[in-house]
Write a structure and sequence with these properties.
Elements (H helix, E strand, L loop, with lengths): L11 H22 L5 H19 L6 H8 L9 H22 L7 H12 L16 E3 L6 E4 L6 H14 L6 H15 L6 H17 L3 H4 L2 H4 L3 H14 L10 H38 L7 H9 L5 H8 L3 H13 L3 E4 L6 E4 L1 H12 L13
Helix pairs in contact: 1-12, 2-3, 2-4, 4-5, 4-8, 6-7, 7-8, 7-12, 12-13, 14-15
């Protein structure tokens, strides 16, 4: 061993941040122990945002509603067919990762990594998906065209992957899992073993390492959504570049990278916690109002969907509540008549957006969102 980037020793500030992440995780586990009507939708929302985030970093943009449609095998309303293929491939790999996270028998191996890469980019046959790249690789800044990273020589990649897999199974097992996840992410993206999909693979692997170590639902521990948010993507590239300095030369100065990931985990955990409390509050509020309106209690799930997303399609509500087409259409018509929803489009393309009453509730919640706290900045 010894050819990979090394896991850094943490400083007191990092341990404090880790403790806080651990506290939030325990709290989350406790809250998820009892079942709620919004759990399924919340999990789907988190998974969709992770898929959306990791793909947007690569320039494949899709709205969260379209990602959810693709996840359920439906035609998206706005996303192009080529982007929809990227989303579907990534979802397949992430779904497998969720299964692997819970599997009682498991070992990392190179075949698994290749297979995950094939799931993600198998539709690009010209990019030799699922097999180690045959030649040299340069990563360019898509805006300026300049080379920002040069991967290790192709003939050295197989032995690097062997060493990496050995580390995944047995290396630094006493390190906190968030730190191991960060180092798995960094080493894989630095080895850059495939012609395409390396960034997405590295982010997904980080999620799998956490899933294995924590026996916890990957959609609640992934930072892919956080990394895909506007400014954060710029910081993410900056953190990668600041650690590898443009080419493969393993060294131990990886603390800034690990710190970047711990901060992202902390911020994302705060977001998830907010979403969970919001789900409880909005659901209770809507139940009361729906009851007062004399509408069917099940239609709260339709309103929750337009609370977290921009729109809802009948087929989604129908599947969520296990209704017939007629029941679902009737419920949505009633919600529109009472000012909760507003229909747009015809037949196949028809969807429902927030009506005036729902828009008012969304605006009220948006106005009182608590800003997230940067765990590395001393609070004033």
């Amino acid at each position: 061993m010894g050819m990979l980037y090394g896991t850094p020793a943490l400083e007191p500030a990092d341990k404090t941040v880790l403790d806080e992440i651990e506290d939030m995780r325990r709290d989350l586990k406790y809250r998820l122990a009892e079942t709620h009507r919004w759990d399924g939708q919340l999990r789907r929302q988190l998974q969709a945002r992770a898929i959306q985030g990791s793909n947007s970093i690569e320039g494949y943009q899709a709205g969260a509603e379209d990602v959810e449609s693709i996840m359920s095998g439906e035609e998206p309303l706005e996303t192009s067919a080529s982007v929809a293929r990227e989303i579907a491939g990534y979802q397949k790999a992430l779904t497998y990762i969720q299964t692997l996270a819970r599997s009682p028998v498991f070992r990392f191996d190179v075949g698994l990594l290749n297979a995950l890469n094939f799931m993600m980019i198998g539709h690009h046959r010209d990019k030799t998906p699922g097999v180690v790249r045959p030649g040299h690789i340069y990563v360019r800044n898509s805006a300026t065209g300049e080379v920002v990273y040069e991967g290790p020589d192709a003939d050295g990649v197989p032995s690097l992957l062997d060493e990496f897999v050995e580390w995944l199974n047995a290396g630094d097992l006493d390190a906190p899992s968030h730190v191991r996840g960060a180092m798995a992410h960094f080493n894989l993206v630095a080895i850059h073993p495939w012609r395409d999909g390396n960034g997405r693979m590295s982010r997904a692997l980080q999620t799998l390492v956490l899933g294995r170590d924590q026996i916890f639902a990957p959609e609640f521990s992934s930072i892919e959504e956080w990394l895909g948010l506007g400014e954060n993507t710029v910081d993410y590239y900056r953190a990668l570049r600041g650690t590898h300095h443009g080419s493969w030369r393993p060294h131990g100065d990886t603390l800034p990278w690990v710190r970047f990931c711990l901060r992202a985990h902390h911020m994302q955990a705060q977001r998830v916690r907010q979403r969970l409390s919001e789900a409880r509050e909005i659901w209770t509020l809507l139940e009361e109002q729906i009851d007062t309106d004399g509408l069917n209690n099940r239609s709260v799930s339709a309103l929750y969907e337009v609370f977290v997303n921009r729109r809802l399609r009948r087929s989604r509500y129908q599947a969520d509540e296990g209704l017939s087409q007629g029941q679902a259409a009737r419920d949505l018509r009633d919600l529109a008549a009472k000012g909760w929803l507003r229909p747009y489009g015809e037949t196949k393309g028809r969807f429902y957006a927030p009506g005036p009453r729902m828009a008012a509730i969304k605006a009220d919640f948006a106005a009182r969102v608590t800003p997230l706290r940067d765990p590395y900045r001393p609070s004033a």
